[in-house]
Amino acid sequence: MTALFEGLLRLGDTTLILSHRVSEWCGHAPALEEDIALANTALDLIGQAQMWLGLAAEVEGAGRSADDLAYLRDVWEFRNFLLVERPNVDFGHTIMRQCLFDQWNGLMLNHLSGSTDDRIAAIAQKAAKEAAYHTERSADLVIALGDGTKESHARMQSALDAFWPYVGEMFTADPVDTELARDGVFPDLASLRAPWDARINEIFASATLHKPDSAFAHQGGKSGKHTEHLGHLLTTMQWLQRAYPGATW
Amino acid sequence: MVATAAEVWAVLATVPDPEIPAISLVDLGVIRAVEWQNDLLTVTLTPTYSGCPATRVIAMDVEVALRDHGVQNLKLETQLAPPWTTDWISDAGRAKLEAYGIAPPQPAGGPAHCPLCKSQAVERISQFGSTPCKAQWRCQTCLEPFDYFKCI
Ligand SMILES: [Zn+2]
C-alpha cells in the first residue's frame, strides 16, 4: 500500500465517518434550522468523501470504486481519526466534535489546495469553499452554547473534556504523513497545530470554556485500530450492501 | 439532430436545473465545455456543491436531452478545477432566480434585498437551507421567509 493511497484513505474515511455520524441527526435535531444545517453539513462531507475515496481508488489501481471502499471494507481497514467515530451523545457533543474537526479541516484544505499533486489540489479547492461555511457555523454555535445558559455551558464543557484526548491524533505525523509531507503532497501536520490552537483559543475564550491541560492523545485510527463504536456505525452504514451485494437503484 | 456545438448549447439552455427549475443548466454555469470529435460529442460538467444530489440528476438530464435530439455517441466528463463558484451563474440566471423568489448571490455575503417586496431590511435565519447551495433569510418588511443563493 502506497503512502498516497493511505493518506487519501485517511481524508476520505474521516469525512465519510463524520458524515455518517452527523447524518444520524436527520429528523432529530432540536430545531428545524439545525436539522437542515446538520443534514447539509453531512451532505457536503459525503461529497468530499466521494472525491477523496474516488481518487484513492484510482491511485490504488485495483479496480475498486469509491463505493467499494466505503461499503466493502471492514473496521480494521478504515483509516479515519478516532475523533469522528465517537458517538453523538447530545447536540453539544456533536457541535463540539464538529468545531474541533472543522478548524483542522479548514487549515488542512487550505494547505492541500497548493499540493504538488494537482488532483488533490483540485479536490481541496472545491471542498474548501463549502468547509468555510461549516467552520463558521460550528464556531458560532460553540460560542453561543458555551456562553449560554448554565445547562448549555455545562454540556459544552463536558463535551470538550470528553473529546480533548482525541485532538492530538490530527496533528501527530507517522511515516505515511512524513513521506507525503516530504513530497509536498500533504502539509507537515505538526505545523497546523499553532494556527489551530490560536483560533480554538479565541473561540473558547468567547465561549467561556476551559481548554483541558492534558496533552494526552489517543492514537490508532490512522492505522486501523479503532474503538468499538466504528463497528456499530459500519453495521448500519454497510447493511444494505452486505445483505444485498451489488444492489443498485 | 444537433450537429454543431452551438446547437448543443442551445439544447442545454432548455434543460432546467433539477432543484431550481426556473434556471437552465447553462444559466447555472455547470456546463464547462462542448466538443465534437467526428461523431463523438463530449460534454464536460462541473459539480456545484460536491455532495449535491442534483449532480447525478444533472448528468442524466443532459444525456436524455441530447439523446432526444439525435446524439448517439455521447461522453460526459467531470471537471473539478477551477472549482465552480456562484460567479459562474449567468446574469440571465440571476434575474430568473430573483423572479422565482430566490435572492441571487452577492459578493457581500447576503441578499441585496427581499426578492418579493424589494425591502433592504432582511435578516439571516440560517446559513444552511433547503439545498446545499441556499441559506434561509427573512424579510423584516413583508415578513416572508425566502431562500438566498449563497456565495461559494
Ligand atoms: Zn419582503
Automatic annotation (TrEMBL), chain A:
Biological process, per Gene Ontology: phenylacetate catabolic process
EC code(s) of this entry: 1.14.13.149
InterPro entries: Aromatic_CoA_ox/epox, Ferritin-like, Ferritin-like_SF, PaaA_PaaC, PaaC
Gene3D superfamilies from the UniProt entry: 1.20.1260.10
GO cellular component: a single term: cytosol
Highest taxon of the lineage: Bacteria
One GO molecular-function entry: phenylacetyl-CoA 1,2-epoxidase activity
Alphabetized Pfam families for the sequence: PaaA_PaaC
SUPFAM superfamilies: Ferritin-like
Record key words, sorted: Oxidoreductase
PANTHER family: 1,2-PHENYLACETYL-COA EPOXIDASE, SUBUNIT C (PTHR30458:SF0), PHENYLACETIC ACID DEGRADATION PROTEIN PAA (PTHR30458)
Official protein name in the record: Ring-1,2-phenylacetyl-CoA epoxidase subunit PaaC
TrEMBL record, chain B:
Domain called PaaD zinc beta ribbon: residue spans: 111-150
Any Pfam family: FeS_assembly_P
Stored Gene3D superfamilies: Fe-S cluster assembly (FSCA)
High-level lineage: Bacteria, Pseudomonadati, Pseudomonadota, Alphaproteobacteria, Rhodobacterales
Domain MIP18 family-like: from-to ranges: 6-67
Protein name: Ring-1,2-phenylacetyl-CoA epoxidase subunit PaaD
InterPro entries documented for this protein: Fe-S_Maturation_MIP18, FSCA_dom_sf, MIP18-like, PaaD-like, Zn_ribbon_PaaD
